[in-house]
Amino acid sequence: MPSTTALKKEQRSAARTSPARPALLLQWYDRHRRRLPWRAASGETSDPYRVWLSEIMLQQTTVKAVGPYFEKFVARWPDVSALGRASLDDVLRMWAGLGYYSRARNLYACAVAVTRDHGGAFPDNEEGLRALPGIGPYTAAAIAAIAFDRRTMPVDGNIERVVSRLFAVEEELPQAKPLIQQLAATLLADTRAGDEKSRAGDSAQALMDLGSSICTPKKPACSLCPLNEDCVARAQGTQETFPRKAPKKSGTLRRGAAFVVTRGDELLVRTRPEKGLLGGMTEVPGSDWLAGQEDKTAKQQVPELKGLSRWQRKVGVVTHVFTHFPLEVVVYTAKAEARTRAPEGMRWVPIATLADEALPNVMRKVIAHGLG
């Protein structure tokens, strides 16, 4: 009987050299591919604009959440030139609620660059794509493969999970990313001769779909997987332990105050600075968000308005979790007299039209709490 270590090496070697896997993957994809708003139908050429837009929206966001936003964007701006001629304010308003707002600012900057510098046509290779605002290595590879059939393999979270299990990659993420990238590239279909496509984009999307529907984080449906006979983790019975991940470090809790001021049926708001967290988004006035900040200190940062009613503290706090830190916000409310002017840098907006403002989710929570 071979040792466990020898068995693992043998399994990994067989997995790496299996020539049938790319073909099996594509056969499965041709039968089970997901229907997605941004995905071209079988045999159709992908639209680089739709591929790019969907990939930016899907960063750190689910397919389910992205669908309605994608449909709204393409209805309003059907191509990259139309988006490039829009205003950043309009783009932020349309993006409001999707989160990670730096993506919206980069999306707009990229659309402007493609329209201005490339005549409204995306570069058709990874190098040219990576030179555009907001497009990193993964997104460049995804667009190059899916939209232009370049022989490259983008690795998202789904592909990372499939590959780490298929080859039983013991190294922890994120250190394992280069190895997973190399192994994922072995799953690309062979380039065919003549004018036929290499189907690099289909290979990538097949792995994405496999990770989404079968090779799920918990209780993967291994019996339905087209690659199950070659999967090292399945042979070991350790599927759910992959990918290996280093323990997450949670950021330090920050605290602050928000001031919900109404003037009849209007609300006092301001626009955050263009750079930094939630740049360019709409918010109610508030304090800094600082670790260990006391309520008394936060409340001292109230906006200066004459003729306000007494500040009332709402019961409870609003909580929100950003990528690098959790946040707790205490909400204070007050009413202003009918002709009270907004302080410099702020404005009154009708509460009925708040849906048209570029409000991030944390501010939607604050306003709902303050007006509730």
Concise overview:
This protein has about 375 residues and is of the alpha+beta class. The chain is about 40% helix and about 10% strand.
What attributes does this structure have?
372 residues, alpha+beta, eight-stranded mixed β-sheet
Produce the secondary structure layout.
Blueprint lengths: L3 H14 L3 H12 L15 H11 L4 H14 L3 H5 L3 H8 L6 H16 L8 H5 L6 H12 L8 H10 L10 H9 L14 H14 L18 H5 L17 E10 L2 E6 L10 E2 L6 E2 L3 H5 L12 E2 L4 E4 L4 E10 L10 E5 L10 H11 L1
Parallel strand pairs: 1-7
Antiparallel strand pairs: 1-2, 1-4, 2-3, 2-8, 5-7, 6-7
Helix pairs in contact: 2-12, 3-4, 3-9, 9-12, 10-11, 10-12
| C-alpha Rg (nearest Å) | 25 Å
Helix content: 40-55%
Low-confidence stretches: none
Distance between the termini: 69 Å
| Number of distinct helices | 15
What are the secondary-structure elements, in order, as H or E?
HHHHHHHHHHHHHEEEEHEEEEH
Mean pLDDT: 91
Large-scale geometry: globular
Broad structural category: alpha+beta
Into which percentage range does the β-strand content fall? 5-15%
Largest sheet: 8 strands, mixed
Q: Count every beta strand, where a strand is a DSSP E run of 2 or more residues.
A: 8
